[in-house]
Amino acid sequence: MSLRVYNTLTKQKELFEPVKPGKVGIYLCGPTVYKPPHIGHLVGPVIFDAIKRYLVFKGYDVTWVVNITDVDDKLIEAAATEKTTVAEIAQRCTKEYLDALASLGVDTIDRFPKASEHMEEITTLIQKLVDQGFAYATDGNVWFDVTKDEDYGKLSHRRPEEQEAGNRDLQGAGKRNPADFALWKAAKPNEPKWDSPWGPGRPGWHIECSAMSMKYLGERLDIHGGGMDLLFPHHENELAQSECATGHPFVKYWLHNGLTRIKTKLAGGEVKNEKMSKSLGNVIDARTAIAELGPDLLRYLILSTHYRSPIDFSDEVVVASRKGLSTFGRLLERVERTLGEPLSDKFQTMDLAAGNLFETDHADFARAVLAHKMKFLEMMDDDFNTAGAIASLHELAGVVNSFMESRRVEKEKQPDVLAAVASATQTFKSLCTILGFFRVKPPLTDGREKGLVDDLMKIFIAIRAEARDTKNFTTADSIRKHLTSIGITLEDRPDGTIWRKD
Fold first, then answer.
1. In whole angstroms, what is the distance from residue 255 CA to residue 310 CA?
2. Are 212 and 115 in contact (CB under 8 A)?
3. Which of 203, 337, 340, 479 has the least CB density, counted as fewest CB within 10 Å?
4. Is the pLDDT of residue 182 over 70?
5. What's the maximum distance between 2 C-alpha atoms anywhere in the chain?
């Protein structure tokens, strides 16, 4: 199967062929660390974590870089508001961001370069643009001249006159054209500054990413990612300055993920999905989200939508995601309980076990498992369609559960059936791992606390059973409902009722 990806630059799906055969360089725009991270900051890393895992699965040697913007107007404003230093805010918020990624199990990022630590690379790149006539210096500032780039606007398909300076760029004296953007900003009193050929100052936002990405991935990147809100002006300006400096294409495939939206109730009672942003004040703190939802549920919620589509956060979406993810957890729990041990490397995947199973009356089951694995891979090969891949995992889980029911495996535990189930589930679990599921272990709890919870749950289960025996279904249903509301699921089985925390 051949991987195809949607390239924002060409607005079509293209066959994925990296610049250097067998090697892939990915650059994802990271956060501007002036406030604690929110859910929106986690979407890109979760998506590209799955993308990198799949590329590694396909045999590529992948290097993934996520930058940290710790030099920016917003940091300066935040430091003035909090009456502290830019460095203190940047250090604190960077740690919170990295802690959030670690809690989610996003551990495949190879480098986190900081703008403040790459001034030499930044000023060298700016000087190159000045020497080549693509940039000009005035009053200690350096500007990129968009009129010198004939291709400016080819990524976003917007004209130079649509360029808006915004609060990240300087406006006023010295600019030749309204659309010209800052590469270097002259120092102002009480602002962070570094020495440069044009005087003390600091870099513009866009040049930071060009300098850092090329330092670690070379002058030609395979994949550059980021949210749709970065397409213009940030990525447009990155592309322009990088290609003017090097004289060749900067990025082969531009991948942009959809914006993060949250359901908001307006004054008139109307409900709408609004972009989640700090400026609107509707963000959900990353630490709170991870603590309340857990890493697997948050991953499931994000990956259940194709990365190019908007990702919605609402109570309804969370409930649906929890229900979907619980299907996966129940299958793994059921199989491990039936096997009497955790799934481990001692159990072969269906790819290895199928040869023997094809000679038994389990042949159809083996073929069905491999067919659903193939469907999973086809979905991922189609522009990293994680939503389709998750749907194929649900179908595979259904196949395994149906086989277990039809063979009465939990009651009879025939060795050959157990082996077939173990191989199928091992395949299922390996595919889940590609998406990053079931890798982060929950925090260890005190043994006495866990024992107390077990004892309390036995009491709830016994009261519910007594209520059902006496046909007091109102009480029985109420117990189940209240437990479900706090993420505890009861499952009635022939050998009794079990509980689990979703």
1. 14
2. yes
3. 340
4. yes
5. 88
Cis-peptide, bond into residue 233, ω within 30° of zero: yes
The DSSP line for 69-80 is B-SSHHHHHHHH
Per-residue confidence (pLDDT) for residue 165, from 0 to 100: 44
Map out the domains of the chain as residue ranges: 326-434, 449-501
pLDDT digits (tens, 9 = 90+) for 248-270: 999 999 999 999 888 655 455 55
Q: Would you state the pLDDT for residue 460?
A: 79
Residues 6 or more apart in contact with residue 319 via CB below 8 angstroms: none
The band of 164, judged by pLDDT with boundaries at 50, 70 and 90, is low
| DSSP 3-state of 490 | strand
Q: Determine the number of helices (DSSP H) and then strands (DSSP E) in the chain.
A: 16, 15
CA–CA separation, 223 and 24 (whole Å):
8
CA–CA distances in Å: residue 277 to residues 39, 40, 78, 99, 281: 10, 8, 16, 21, 6
Q: What percent of the chain has pLDDT over 70?
A: 88
Rounded to whole angstroms, the Cα distance separating 77 from 278 reads 14
> Within 10 Å of residue 453's Cβ, how many Cβ atoms?
14
Taking only the tens place, the pLDDT of each residue in 456-495 is: 777 878 888 777 888 787 887 888 877 776 668 777 765 5
Residue appearing with tokens 């199989």: 335
End-to-end CA distance of the chain: 35
Lowest mean pLDDT among 82-91, 154-163, 401-410, 483-492: 483-492
Could you tell me the two tokens for 405? 């029911």
Q: Which long-range contacts (CB under 8 A, 24 or more apart) does 288-297 make?
A: 289/39, 289/42, 290/100, 290/103, 290/104, 293/318, 294/442, 295/103, 295/104, 295/105, 295/440, 296/325, 296/437, 296/438, 296/440, 297/321, 297/322, 297/325, 297/502
Between β-strands 135-138 and 61-66, what pairing exists: parallel, antiparallel or unpaired? Answer: unpaired
DSSP collapsed to 3 states, 113-135: CEHHHCHHHHHHHHHHHHHCCCE
Query: pTM of the full predicted structure?
Result: 0.86
**Dist CA 384 CA 302 (whole Å):** 13
Q: Does domain 326-434 have CATH number 1.10.1220?
A: no
